[in-house]
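We now fix the convention by which a protein and its fold are recorded. Here is one such record, which you should read through line by line:

>
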Amino acid sequence: MFRTVVLAAGLSLSLLASALEAQTGSTKANPPPERTAADIEWESLEAFSRPRPAAMPTDEKERAAARKKQASDLVAQADRIKEFYDKNPNHARVKDAKFLEARTLFLAAEAGDASQEARRKTLVESIRRDPGLAVGKRSEISAWAANWEIRQQKNLTIPERLEAHEQVARSLAVEFPTVPEVYESLYAIARSRDDEKGRQLMQDLLTMPAPDTVKAQARQMIERYALEGRSLGEVATAAAGANSPAAQAKGVVVIYTWASWSKGSLALASRLPSTAPSGATFIGVCLDTDLNAARAAAQAAGLPGTQIYDSRGGAGALAQQLRLTEPTLVYLTDANGLITTVSGVRQLLAAAGSSSGK
């Protein structure tokens, strides 16, 4: 009886498997397509395009020789990539190969090769106009080409260079409106400019088809700009009460943000006393939520001035009211306590650079 039941169960399972096979075509996954010699060659070319960065020699002559060899190797690799798609014109990765060739030629140019300019420009235009290539790759190569041209203009001042980069990014936003990196670039340029044109660019980002994350960053920066001219004491009192260190500070105040997980913010904070106006009051706003770790980090780094801690980190009342929601922000006030700039880090470092050059 038991054997009959087992046989019956086995028969039922067999029938069930047959039914499933009839519906799906097979109970086994189709085997992956067999890799061809061209597939293997392409994988090798891709692997070469992601080399680990090698340390350059410190000796000037040795470094120049190393860069020359690097440039030569990159041109040779670009030639191999071109050979690949010339002899395999119907391969599925031909378009990706052309992109990789262009990128490799740019790397060769950065290493000092000047022999492939005409080839590189022809390839860039071909890629830029190829609707069959992913739009992100088309915009990347187009940006690389335009920014390379800017880099060759050695006599541009920093404002002129930023203006040129902005014009490139704006044109790319028109040509490739769906690529997020274009708008991220525009936001970075606006942050770097910190002038009326930079602030206008922040406003323009809100009307562009930029990702929500970029618009949120731009909106946050615009809200920071709106704090300029306001009284630090009044803003701090409204957020954290009249007893807040920021509300009670008198004279010129340097208020900065830091976090134990941001080494850059700790390093910047340590430099502030040597760059700030004489007699300034320092107030650090910690963005950590682990207050024990934060206090230990502040003590170890020897951070200047009074530290403000809030277990909510960047979501704390003072941080939110002053839009102090990321590390390395620096605000400055005048002697009357009015916020003069929310981009104080650039102003202080520029002053330090000019004084050191005297």
About this structure: The chain has 16 helices and five strands. Residues 1-17, 352-358 have pLDDT under 50 and may be disordered.
